[in-house]
Amino acid sequence: MDKKKLFVGNLPWSVNEQSLKDMFSPFGEITEAIVINDRYTGRSKGFGFVTFANEADAEKALAEMAEKEVEGRKIIVNVAKPKEERPNRGGGGGYRNDYNRRQF
Fold it and tell me: Within a domain: residue 39?
């Protein structure tokens, strides 16, 4: 597991990638700061990820930023976990139910 990458949750909607980077930059060099947006609306989903150049800086940020209040919201900071494979939800042109398969 990469301990240089932190998950940051419960972010205010106003936080963008630059402000997220600015929030964590006092703890060390950041290689990436990303806020996850909804693909349809473009609006923030309220969480993101910050990747540090080294683990020591990430650990410092984790200790200092956990449950810090930002614009009235207590943010959540954890070591990011690898994305798990999700099962295919279908949508490949199959039938939705048996009714559609009936021969009349």
Answer: yes
| pLDDT tens-digit map of 25-34 | 999 999 999 9
User: Using an 8 Å Cβ cutoff, are 28 and 64 in contact?
Assistant: no
Q: Which domain holds residue 53?
A: 5-79
pTM of the predicted model as reported, rounded to 2 decimal places = 0.78
- How is residue 95 written in tokens? 């039938």
Using an 8 Å Cβ cutoff, are 79 and 52 in contact? no
Distances (CA, A) of 69 to 29, 51, 74: 22, 20, 4
Q: What is the pLDDT of residue 74?
A: 96
* 99 assigned to some structural domain: no
Count of Cβ atoms closer than 10 Å to residue 1 Cβ: 8
Q: What is the CATH number of the domain that holds 48?
A: 3.30.70.330
Structure tokens that stand for 102 in this block = 């009936």
* Strand (E) or helix (H) holding 19: helix 17-24
**Is the pLDDT score of 101 beyond 70?**
no
